[in-house]
Amino acid sequence: MSLSFQILKTVGKSRRGKLTTAHGIVNTPAFMPVGTCGTVKAMMPESVEKTGAEIILGNTYHLMLRPGADLVAEMGGLHKFMNWKRPILTDSGGFQVMSLSGLRQISEQGVSFRSHVDGKKFFLGPEESMDIQYKLDSNITMAFDECTPYPSTEKKAMLSMQRSMRWAKRSKEAFIDRPGYGIFGIQQGNVFKNLREESAAALKEIGFDGYAIGGLAIGEGQEKMFEVLDYAPDMLPASKPRYLMGVGKPDDIVGAVLRGVDMFDCVMPTRSGRTSQAFTKYGPINIRNARHREDPRPIEEGCDCPLCTNYSRAYIHHLQKCKEVLAVMLLSWHNIRYYERLMQGLREAIENDRLDDFVQEFYFNQSKGDIEPL
Amino acid sequence: MSLSFQILKTVGKSRRGKLTTAHGIVNTPAFMPVGTCGTVKAMMPESVEKTGAEIILGNTYHLMLRPGADLVAEMGGLHKFMNWKRPILTDSGGFQVMSLSGLRQISEQGVSFRSHVDGKKFFLGPEESMDIQYKLDSNITMAFDECTPYPSTEKKAMLSMQRSMRWAKRSKEAFIDRPGYGIFGIQQGNVFKNLREESAAALKEIGFDGYAIGGLAIGEGQEKMFEVLDYAPDMLPASKPRYLMGVGKPDDIVGAVLRGVDMFDCVMPTRSGRTSQAFTKYGPINIRNARHREDPRPIEEGCDCPLCTNYSRAYIHHLQKCKEVLAVMLLSWHNIRYYERLMQGLREAIENDRLDDFVQEFYFNQSKGDIEPL
Question: With a threshold of 0.90, does the pTM exceed it?
Answer without folding.
Answer: yes
